[in-house]
Known about the structure:
The structure is a homodimer. Chain A is 34% helix and 28% strand.
Amino acid sequence: MARFFVAGCNRPKGGTVLLTGADADHARVLRLRVGDRIEVCDGAGTDRRCVIRAFGSGEVEAEVEEIEPCASEPTVQVKVVAGLPKQGERADYVVQKSTECGATEIVFFLSHRCVARPDGYALEKKLSRWQRIAEEAAKQSGRGVIPAVSAVEDFAGALDAAIKTELPLFFYETGDRVPLKQALEEAGVVRSAAVITGPEGGFEPWEAELAAKTGFRVCSMGPRILRCETAPVAALNALMYATGNF
Amino acid sequence: MARFFVAGCNRPKGGTVLLTGADADHARVLRLRVGDRIEVCDGAGTDRRCVIRAFGSGEVEAEVEEIEPCASEPTVQVKVVAGLPKQGERADYVVQKSTECGATEIVFFLSHRCVARPDGYALEKKLSRWQRIAEEAAKQSGRGVIPAVSAVEDFAGALDAAIKTELPLFFYETGDRVPLKQALEEAGVVRSAAVITGPEGGFEPWEAELAAKTGFRVCSMGPRILRCETAPVAALNALMYATGNF
């Protein structure tokens, strides 16, 4: 069944959903007709099964037949909180792969060893680019949620974004750490988690100490050193696997 | 300690290892001196701790003090067997990320739905490019093994490359499948495994049937549809996590 994203769509059963713009064009490309069924996702975890009622000028009208939670969403909500990489393509990669692999939210942060320091305008442009990448990846992978992509301007903001989850994990490449497996097994069933990973140069020791004091589990991902764009996705995959969402 | 790769290095304790070319230049950039200790990896899982004895013209002589297995290698040898992606950068990505995440070998194959059909010359060029990417990624991530990258020209070759492992896994996006977690838990401790994933268009039903008949576990990675370059790395991460190599 063809699937469309209409962000914020909140029509009740019997109500009318409108496809407009690129979605309406896409419905035409798919040669959909009156009476055909489509799936409309609100981008926030709910699907609406609809039946097409009419084709207008540049829009398609569909009636809501059924409303149900999107089956492809994981049982655990994971925030990916990553140090802003120096190279733009690495950040794009974090957004695309984290979305495919089931993240609920993606937060970039600036920390001591971040090289990239975009100003307000540049950051705005990047954020809208990342949000588009997340939307595309969510559609392609059949997600029910489009992860929100945001940025915080300091390390404290990163800790704050992550600590509000049931299982805040901080990945550090040295020092006192537990294997991720141990941290996950000790945590038991969780409904939310966060993974914090550093930029290219990693973390300052005081940053890791602050995270530990704030209540994070400081974890390792084994003896291999992962690149800054690889680590968050690897951690996310392990988390999804461990929680039965794979 | 500075780490160098000298492929095929097999000097015994007390023997002399020579760093040449870019490695010798790199030793100079690092301002290493006579008496400094370095680590020399043979690219096949063994490290040699050496002490620098002399700097020659374009070469550095070091004496082997200790020989030990490389600590960063996983306990399970995983072959990543992936349908050749249409876009070159996706294949590059599979090689780089699989190497970082601990694969022992990477095999690309051509199957029914592969769009890319490089001829012999183009494939040779690609293979040498991929091998360079694997070598770079192995160095960066502290691997002890540089994964061999190869290509087979049909689907039967892919099955053959994977079936020789203790746990050959075939990832299929539809039909009769077990969750990866179940397959791994039922397999118990394994020393070798293979993950087969398809190209952009996925597999033909007969390809999945053939894999099942040949003895593969046909697995799913959950309800989200991963891109062809994302799937092998996600499967590898889950496998490394499940086998305690994370």
